[in-house]
Amino acid sequence: MSDSWDAEVFRVPDIAWHAEAPPVRYPIPVQYAGELDVGDEVTIGLPGRYFIDGQVLARGERDVVALRGRADELASLAVAAPYAYWLAQAYPKAGLTMQWWPVMYSWTYRDAVSPGKERPEAPPTAPEDSGSWLQSVRAALDEPPVRRPHPARLAGSLSGRAVRLQHERGQWSWWIAVSEPFDHNGDFLVSAMRTHHYWLSQVTFDPVQRQQAVPLYRLFVYD
Questions:
Q1: Which of 23, 109, 135, 157 has its CA 20 to 30 A from that of 66?
Q2: What does the angle CA 176 – CA 171 – CA 54 come to, to the nearest 5 degrees?
Q3: Which pairs with CB-CB distance under 8 Å and at least 24 residues apart come from 171-177?
């Protein structure tokens, strides 16, 4: 590898500071979060044991059921894995595989600051590096962790991962990355799909039509 090639690489400017990091996201117990819409994402779990992110509210109504191995009946939500939910949307005759999960063990994530909310004018600044992974270590597992944004360029791998794209100041949208970063005429891009398009592509096997190349520096991941 020549020294001139190395020089070309390091001449590429770091423009990540042009993008504003999206808000920190906090887990809100569903019982305090107000009405949810069918298709909204929820996190389910059992305190002190485990959590599963990215589940989908499959029905608007609720029921009273008991978890396996427990006698007490609890108000519950109908939840489904995203693949099962979008499979049912594409092929209704296939039916929907879902489960009832207690409301008291369900959370939904909310932004610390709502997208689009007016903020004081200030020049964009580079997102701070979170530093050591030790900052994410928790003393208890009674609720899901707070999710903090990081520039996607710092992530070890992006393919199949949820990413948040900044459109303009205070406005973001959710995507699924379907490639690692690539160079296109000097711009670093990532192929990505809208969340519902991504899951439908797992059913239709036609992902190319819905892919879009988006700038790497405008993408953020949550840890």
A1: 109
A2: 35
A3: 171/115, 171/116, 172/22, 172/115, 172/220, 175/214, 175/219, 177/152, 177/219
* Domain 148-222 classification at class level: mainly beta
| Sequence-separated (6 or more) residues with CB below 8 Å from residue 72 | 66
Angstrom distance (rounded) from CA 1 to CA 38 = 54
Domain ranges of the chain: 22-110, 148-222
pLDDT per position as a tens digit, 48-93: 888 999 999 999 999 999 877 777 899 999 999 999 999 898 888 8
In three-state secondary structure terms, 89 is: helix
Query: Contact 104/29 with Cβ under 8 angstroms?
Result: yes
CA distance 32 to 50: 21
The yes-or-no answer to whether 22-110 and 148-222 have a common fold is yes
What class does CATH assign to 22-110? mainly beta
